Amino acid sequence: MQFGIFAVLIGLVLWSVQATVIDDTDWQRIGTLADIGESVAHFIGVDFALIPSLLGPTIETFMIACIGTLLGLVFCVPMIWFGALNVTPFKPVTYPIARVAMTLSRSIHEIVWALIFVSAVGLGAFAGILAIAARSLGFIAKMSAEAIENIDHKPVEAIRAMGGSNLQVMIYAILPQVLPVILGIVIFEWEINIRRSSVLGLVGAGGLGLVFFRQMNTFNYPGVTTVIIAILMLILIGEVVSHYSRKALI
Amino acid sequence: MTMPEKARPDTLRGDDVHREWSRFKYPQTLINYGVLFGILLFFSYSIHYLNIPLERILGMFGRLGDVLANRYYPPDLDYIADTDYLDSVIETVQMAYLGTLFGLTLAIFLGWFAAYNVSPSRKYIYPVARLVAMGCRSVHEMIWAILFVTILGFGLLPGVLALTMFSIGFAGKLFAEEVESIDMGEVEAIRAMGGTNLQVFVFGVFPQVRVAFTGIAIYTWDVAFRAATVVGFVGAGGMGWYLKRNIMQIETERTAAILLSIVVLVVISELISAWARSRVSKAQ
Amino acid sequence: MAILEVENLRAKYSARGPEILKGISFEVEDNDFFAIIGPSGAGKSTLIRCINRLIEPTSGDIRLDGTDMLSLDTRALRRKRRHIGMIFQEFNLINRMSVMDNVLSGRLGYVGAIRSIFRVFTNRDIQRALELLERVGLQDHIDKRADQLSGGQRQRVGIARALMQEPNLLLLDEPTSALDPKISREVMELIRTMANELKVPVLCNIHDVQLAKEFCNKIIGLQDGYKMFDGPTETLDQSSLEEIYAMEVL
Fold this sequence. Notes:
The complex is a heterotrimer. By secondary structure, chain A is mainly α. Chain A has helices at 2-24, 27-30, 33-41, 55-83, 91-107, 110-121, 125-149, 154-161, 166-200, 208-217, 221-249. Chain A is globular. In chain B, helix 6 (141-152) crosses helix 7 and helix 7 packs across helix 9. Chain B has a domain at 86-283: MetI-like fold (Orthogonal Bundle). By secondary structure, chain C is α/β, with parallel strands linked by helices. Chain C contains 9 helices and 10 strands. Chain C has helices spanning 44-51, 74-81, 99-104, 113-118, 123-135, 151-164, 181-198, 209-215, 238-245; strands at residues 2-12, 19-29, 33-37, 59-64, 67-68, 84-87, 169-173, 202-205, 218-223, 226-232. Chains in contact: A-B, A-C, B-C.
């Protein structure tokens, strides 16, 4: 059985390589290794003149990530409620709705979401924010619903035993367990969203993506590299903030 | 019928001592509220800076619904039933498959080198490996795709390479984290027997992480496949190319059909992944 | 007059499941420290939880302070529960909240929605909480998170919390099973002292027969849902014990 699977996998590899790398590639155009080296060399270098005009788009990318994540959280509250087996109001209906929404949100690539929203609200950061929100909604809802499903029932029992109302059970027994976890999830997703926001500009949804696009179109390869460096710096900031704030949450 | 509740004499030693206590601790509470205020300030400033029409957000649902109902429906299913399109779908799968495979293979090494506890050289190899993983991870797969398309031209090869780079970063970090959480006892045993670094990895580390790695591999495939469906947008082969063409030509019904096919494919891929995951955990 | 009268109590976990309690009757007096002993699975925990209806009995009578517990509607039950303090085997504290907040939560049955959300308690409540914390020996741990305490300390928080309710009855569900022997003894000492001082009767489900004999004045023994023994501690002799524990010979 093991061997059979192995053989199938290898077969798929060979078939795939045949179809993609060998058949599909225009080997003539690529040329020799030296030609490739030359192409790569174009990217080496930094376009210093570009740097001042990068500040605005960089801040814009960062803001898109922040507001997009927040919006995603706001919109996914009903999905979290419906998507947790222990609190969903009407299991046969609301739970599947939530699962479908979560799956849709996560299956559609952020670029595709951006395209949808650009056609709905026009070019610019607003479309980008909505795209990020739509993309993050699924992940945040899924993980948060799981957190709610995994709560420890002992505090719930204690608050009920002392005559607590449903609201009090929620505030004292459930929320203190669940909120830190959700916050951690949001920060995690926020960090990933910085990466996503950086390319939304490619389809007109704001941020550094547009600058990237322009630099590519004018064949200013060192400029492209500079934009990539700006993106990397943003991501680094995100990673540092995410690491320390999630540590503080434990 | 309930009787009035009997009042309990509260005979705790009411010793008239006034004890001090405040919920608000200085300086911690001040810092907490300060940070919260700063974040709120940032958000309001951002909304202002980006000219976000907050009042439009709710109306936007109506507008979106309108757009979806009129222009995107019904999806042009005949268009995607076309052989050329279906070929591109198969190519997308192949591209994703190869990219993930190559990427995961390299990521295994990255998982070894970038793990602090078993890295062959903590001074040189470890930081470099960490940097490589971070670099691959930070660059968005679309950017990788564009870069490779620039160097190699249009086609599936740039897509494969872009997904490879993505997988190296994605899986590499997860692999490394997994390796860092193993039980070092087995590793020490192999080292004590005089094993080389490679032997230590193969016999001491790998058996412990094998199952987790499989799970991570499946997860990587999930994410990579989603990316594969759209890298064609920038010329890297696959169904994404059709997406771009139809959007440029504002063929909204065809676009809807393509989006539908993407969602269906991703869901199928997820179902297969879920099945594979359950097989793996059963086999444990 | 008996503060708690239980008559012919029957209970099941699920409608089609086996009967856990098969007609238990006993009375608890105003100044009792009453123990329920028996082998695992005898129904001790179920019995305790039937008193405050955390588990709903299938039939029988429970009268607390003259009130028929089983006829109370949800609201009336909540109001009645605030006069029943419960101490749990695994403490059932709100782990991420401070010791002080955990103790204050004992007043939740008396506090309205707005005050619960903002955690505003009266000065009298705060003073009482501080005094209780001093009495259980935790005055140096007031602002620590509950999960930073040891097992014995956590149970003392549980004791303070239960006493904050100004209860008419204390229910203990194996309060010492999760603690080591020395700490167990200290905790039982503390409960007995506080219960005597505040004149609160105690109904205690306990696994350790030695502790039951040492601290309790009356004992009932359960086996397989039936009452095997009912009487003052002094009359619990070896043969009664063997009857209760059937297979187990202590």
